[in-house]
Amino acid sequence: METHLFDMLSQVDGYIYPNEIELQWGILVVLYPYLTGLVAGAFILASLERVFKVKVLGPTYQLALITALAYLICAPLPLIAHLGQPARAYEIMITPNGDSAMAIFGFVYLWYLMVVLLLEIWFDYRRDFVIWSREEKGIKRVIYKILTLGVTDISPKALKWDDRLGYIITVIGIPSAFLLHGYVGFIFGSIKANPWWSTVIMPVIFLFSAIVSGIALVMVLYMIISYIRKVKIDM
């Protein structure tokens, strides 16, 4: 192993960085598209209830959104752990390479996290945040008051606006979810060195696998939570 590494390094002309020694993608890189697929699938499940009025999925709506948010926050962690210098991961946002598909994906990720998921969840839970900020005490009250963002109006008119804006964001979120995971498929499909990956249908394959895996995850979580809470599965 050491002899092979020495022979390889002797052929290097110029500088070599820590992440260039390991040429193959490991399990950490594989985890990232898997996690983003779960995110996209969970959000699609939530949109089926809100946009397409599939009322039978009503009990899983909020669970699907929270699941999507939780997995989206954790999705970059395997990539950061894979880097030779994880502390420099933030530089992809402040000094991006416009010619890099991976660099542009960082902005796709931020768009989906901040504009779609966080905003939709905030509109859905704003009424609860206001009520909890009035009922709770101590540190919980402070946290909930901050989460209201100063918007404490919970009149029927205000709640109607919340629902309308949340609906609009969900509609925007559907193509955004396709972009989130389809873009990962585009990155894999553009790798010509691997004939199994280099195909134009790779984004489509990623999207369908994401929908199936994300919906399955939410269904399993719903069944587990219902069992723990001793609540009948209402679907």
TrEMBL record:
Transmembrane segments: 25-48, 60-81, 101-123, 165-188, 200-225
Subcellular localization(s) per the UniProt record: Cell membrane
Keywords, alphabetical: Cell membrane, Membrane, Transmembrane, Transmembrane helix
Mode of membrane association: Multi-pass membrane protein
Entry GO terms, CC: plasma membrane
PANTHER family per the UniProt record, alphabetical: PROTEIN NRFD
Entry's family note: Belongs to the NrfD family.
Protein name: Polysulfide reductase
Organism, as annotated: marine sediment metagenome
Lineage of source species: unclassified sequences, metagenomes, ecological metagenomes
